Amino acid sequence: MTAVVWFILLALVVVLVRVSGYQSKWKVRQQLLDGACAVVLRSVQLAFAVHHSFQAWVQNSLTQAGLDMQELLQGDDTEAVLAKRQQLSDLLASLPQRPEHLAVILPEVKVRENEAIGNMLAGEVDDVEVLCAWGLLAKISHMSIYTRDDSLSRTFDSIAGRLRNSKMVARAFDGRTPNICLEAKAQVEHICAHSDSSQPDIHICLWSRDHGYPSIAKLAQELAREVQSGALSPTAITEACVANRLQDLRGCKHPELVLLLDDLPCMSEFPPWQLQNSELVQIGSGERSLGDAVFRALVRFAKIEMRWGK
Amino acid sequence: MSVDVHSWYTWAALFVTLTAYIIVAGLRKPISFLPFHTPCNKVLANVSQTTRLVLVRILRQGHIPAHISFIMDGNRRYARTQHLKATSGHISGFHNLTRVLDWCNALGITHVSVFAFAINNFTRSADEVEALMDLATNKLRELATKSELVKKHNVRICVVGNRSMLSEEVQRAAEFAEEETKNNTGLRLNICFPYSATDEISFAVQKVAEDVASGEVRVEDVDERVVADRLRIKSPDPDILVRTSGQVRFSNYMLWQSAKHTHIQFIDVFWPNFSFFHMFCILVSWQLARSQISYRKA
Asked: Does pLDDT of A230 surpass 60?
């Protein structure tokens, strides 16, 4: 039986060689070798894909066995939950370093719908609520949430309404209502408990691709106009000049930590100027919830050493 | 489970395992793990070389990136682990760079960018900066004139960065390397030295303003493409960005180009220890992700 199978395979190869026309023996050998290498490559790629899936499965199993971060903020205020929440808050406060500005890259809608990462994320409004709660819990003063397709700006009013009435956010802020500044490209809204408080407890910016490459191109156009009109000399366009013009009017620093919520390690056209000295943490679909992802990113950030070129 | 030492398959399995270990170890580390210079070294080097050729052939059956970019981090920490001076780490890093270029050329990669020296590296000790400048001067000339890679594979060297910050001697060495190889049509090597992405973007913005003032470009036509065409690095956006040493940041390197759809790989190994094994894994990961990247670009 085995001999018959081998004979059929050999006959097939001979027929293929004949059908492909006359070629030199060397060329045929090269083609067979290339074919064998292609088969090996596909096997290696399959092994890699299986390995990545296995790693994600292991990660998922480990997080299931651990503490459910999301429940601490979404669950009822029982004594046990309050105690755990306080423990978590103390743990976050004890981290040797925390970012003042955290940026989170959410995958765009078409990516969420098609890929496994969608399991970790709920709707966009829910995600912003969870991120705001975590920002308050970890005492992060500035948070930027980025989507390439600017889908968050389109739901600005829904997000503001959700944050205004959010129990999760209040729980993260020790049961009080925080002062939140929510900002998109063309809108700013202060969601505050007390209007006399000028400094927000957290400043949330909704970023999109427009905050990056188009902004730099627009700045280049403005500066070119000034040079053309004689108001500015080209030699005055230095790195400091560009940095000053691109700086957020509220004077916030570039994000120290960028959390990429995606299986694919690509930046999705995140504003390039903001990435200068950012630590990048990628969390894939192995995490059970957004809260787990943020917690892991903060713990990883706490361990890094910034050397600033030295 | 007991092992039957008298059976042939036990010995066969041991032999196969040992051979596989030697090949993998030879790929992961240059062939110096044997403590003595024995004739076996040459045989094992040939086996590693053949295995590398086979693996290159396997990789070439799939898509190959056009541009790969490296942040060569970890030279000083490597030197510390070997109880050597920092300069020795940089020299080891240079030797590994020539090996990596060889692999890239064999794979058919047409553009390679390397982050050799950042602008804020000038804040390091004066001795180290001077040693790095001397190394750069010597190695640029060596690469341009004596390097097998440049002569055999027609590599074109481009030194990219704010050269006004370099001494005249280093500037001359950079100009010499570029002049000697300007007609080469092979792999393009962008040596970013001294470089920062924000400096590059500012330079492009300044160039746009100058070109508008001279009438070369109309101010209404200034857009992202016009800015991108005036960046210092004249290569397509990198398909893969690799940073060694386990640090997970860009450190102000190729931000405009890499923040788009570049596949980013942070590898926890010092640059002098970066081996073909790591390169193989990176390329296979990229080949697997390529279809998703193309879908997102659309």
From this structure: yes
The number of residues in chain A equals 310
pLDDT, mean of residues B175-186: 92
What phi and psi values does residue A202 have, to the nearest 5 degrees? Answer: -150, 140
| Concatenated DSSP letters of B100-123 | HHHHHHHHT--EEEEE--BGGGGG
pTM (2 d.p.): 0.84
Between the CA of residue B217 and those of A9, A221, A222, B213, B223, what are the distances in Å?
A: 64, 11, 14, 8, 11
Q: Which of residues 265-294 of B touch A (CB under 8 A)?
A: 265-266, 281, 284-285, 287-289, 292-293
Gap between the Cα atoms of B174 and B31, Å rounded: 32
Residues of A with Cβ-Cβ distance to B201 under 8 angstroms? 216, 242, 272-273
Asked if B129 is an interface residue toward chain A (Cβ–Cβ < 8 A), one would say no
CA–CA gap between residue A198 and residue A21 (Å, rounded): 81
Is B95 an active-site residue?
Answer: no
Q: If you measure CA to CA, which chain B residue comes closest to A42?
A: B62
Burial of B97 (0-12, 13-18, 19+ CB in 10 A): buried
Instruction: Please identify which of the residues B187, B189, B231, B283 carries the catalytic annotation.
Output: B187
**B 230-249 → A contacts, CB under 8 A:** 247-249
pLDDT digits (tens, 9 = 90+) for A57-89: 666 665 554 556 666 777 677 788 888 888 888
**In the block, which residue shows the tokens 């092979």?**
B186
Query: Which pLDDT band, with edges at 50, 70 and 90, does A304 fall under?
Result: confident
Are B54 and A228 a contacting pair at CB < 8 A? no
Q: Which residues pair with B242 in a beta bridge?
A: B70, B265
pLDDT one-digit tens code per residue, A263-300: 889 999 999 999 998 999 988 776 667 888 888 899 88
B153 is catalytic: no
Could you tell me the end-to-end alpha-carbon distance of chain A, in angstroms, rounded to an integer? Answer: 69
Task: Give the ipTM of the model, two decimals please.
Answer: 0.82
Q: Cβ(B271)–Cβ(B46) under 8 Å?
A: no
Overall average pLDDT of the A19-25 stretch: 63
Q: How many beta-carbon contacts under 8 Å exist across A and B?
A: 172
SS3 B65: coil
Nearest to B255 among A220, A234, A276 (CB): A276
Which candidate, A130, A149, A120, A146, places its Cα nearest to that of A284?
A120
Residue type, A111: V
How, if at all, do strands A257-261 and A180-183 pair?
unpaired
Contact B206 A234 (CB under 8 A): yes
**Burial class of residue B244, CB neighbours in 10 A (0-12, 13-18, 19+):** buried
Q: Are strands B188-192 and B111-115 parallel, antiparallel or unpaired?
A: parallel
Catalytic one of B27, B44, B90, B149:
B90
Candidates A247, A249, A292; CA nearest to A274 is A247
